[in-house]
Structure formats: structure tokens, C-alpha cells
Amino acid sequence: MSKFSALLLTAMMTTSTAWSVAVNAEATGKDSAVQGPETLIERQLKQLDANVPIESITKSPMPGIYKVMLKGGFVIYSSENGQYFIKGELLEVRGNQLVNLTEEVKSQQNARLLKSLNKEDMVIFAPTGETKGVVYAFTDVDCGYCRKLHREVGQLNALGIELRYLAFPRGGQQSPVHGKMTDAWCSADRKQALTDLKTGKSISAEIQGDKAACSTVIDNHYNLGVQMGINGTPAMVLENGQVIPGYRPAADIARIINSQP
């Protein structure tokens, strides 16, 4: 890992206000007149680390500052010449409110990723009546707080909230939990199988389908969670891409959903 990668990783994992790094000023000065800012910024980052995971580079709402989207939902900001990089949150005054533009960008990206999913690959607990909101939950069957959330599925449904489970075995793709969740996704009754596992029971439902295909679904969900910056369970995501980390009671989830514009 390069020094820049280490610095970048450390910065993304911390909650400190901001950091900045300056790169070769002489190089940027020579090239800025002949290259566009996007090309120059990418070039500078790649010189620091050829493997830096850039997804896009676009103008930010702040004059002279560019937004660099990285895989995992991370955002950094750059000067036009790629000499300075800032990790922090960009805020905008809208009327009498202060809006976090960085969180908005992350949520928009998450929402796009969620729309790419197939409902057939989820385990869905839907209300019997009107659906007033949808929440996606990255879950691990051995996670204590995931089990606590699962005990409130009935309350969520009664409040009109549809819960869509996505698999996120915290131990990774080689863990025993991955195998358990593969069996649940391959069961004739996924909902019952998941409920059994979350209550400490062995799966009694008949396994059906291709286990390799079911394992691929678990892998896809896990990789999606990593891409969205999920690092623990339960992690809930609203349809607009807003992440609700950790366990929240059903009433709190409903309140958050109902407060959305």
C-alpha cells in the first residue's frame, strides 16, 4: 500500500473535520494550462497511487472546487489544478437551513445502487395493507442486534413499512455465516428459514435451487454493502439512499421514513 493509500484509508475511517494533502506544485503548474481540471486531478491521484478507486470527477457547487467520487461511497474534494485535496463535508446554506451536500451525494449513489437490485434476490417482509415506506436491511443471521430488529418485523409491517433483507455476513465470503445465509436463500420458504436462523434454530425447510447461484446472490449483496460503505449490521438504507446505521426500534424507523421530504 502506498503512503497516499494509507493516508486516504485513514482519512476515510476517521470522523475528524478535514484533512488536506498537497502534491507536486511544479507538475500541476506546467500542465494546468493544457489539460482540463478533471484530467489533471485524475492524473495527480494516479501518480500518487495507480490503484486509487476513482468513480467520477465533477465540478462541485463551490467555485473552484471539484468533487471526486471514490468507490465505497467516499467523497474527497480537489482544487482545479489537483494540487490540494480535502476530505470533509461540503455544506450549503439553503434558506434558513444548512444542508450536507456530501451526504446528499452519497445517498444519491446508494439509491442508484439499490435500484439495480432484483426483488427476487431479497427476503421481503411486506405489510398486508398499504405500504407506506420501504427499508433495506443488510443483515447477518448471527448478529444480536439483527435478531432484535427481526423480532420487530411485525411492528414494522403494522406501521406500513416493507422490510427488504440483503445478506451481509460480517465474517466475509469464507465465513460459516455465509454458508448459513446461502442455505436460507436457497430454502423453499426463505422468510421462515431466515427467521429460524435468527432464533438460533437449524434450517428445517427443504433446500431448493442451485446453491452456487444462491451463494452468488449472497456475494453480490455483501459486495454491494462494501461498495456503499457498510461495515456492520444491521445497517438500514432508505429508498432515497440514506443510511441508518445500527439497530433502531420500529417506531424510530417509521419516524425517520415519515420525516422524509
Provide the succession of SSEs.
HEHHEEEEEEHEEHHEHHHEEH
Number of DSSP E strands: 12
- Main sheet properties: 5 strands, antiparallel
Report the helical percentage.
Answer: 25-40%
Q: Termini separation (Å)?
A: 42 Å
* Uncertain stretches: 13-20
Which descriptor suits the 3D outline? globular
> Mean pLDDT across all residues, rounded?
86
Count of DSSP H/I helices: 10
Structure characterization notes:
By secondary structure, this protein is α+β, with helices and mostly antiparallel strands. The protein is globular. The protein has a five-stranded antiparallel sheet, with helices on both faces. The protein is built from ten helices and twelve strands.
Briefly summarize what is shown.
This protein has helices spanning 3-13, 25-31, 37-48, 101-115, 144-150, 153-158, 176-185, 190-198, 211-227, 250-258, and strands at 19-22, 54-59, 65-70, 74-79, 84-87, 91-94, 97-100, 123-125, 133-139, 161-167, 235-238, 243-245.
SSE layout:
Elements: H1 3-13, E1 19-22, H2 25-31, H3 37-48, E2 54-59, E3 65-70, E4 74-79, E5 84-87, E6 91-94, E7 97-100, H4 101-115, E8 123-125, E9 133-139, H5 144-150, H6 153-158, E10 161-167, H7 176-185, H8 190-198, H9 211-227, E11 235-238, E12 243-245, H10 250-258
Parallel strand pairs: 9-10
Antiparallel strand pairs: 1-5, 2-3, 3-4, 4-5, 6-7, 8-10, 9-11, 11-12
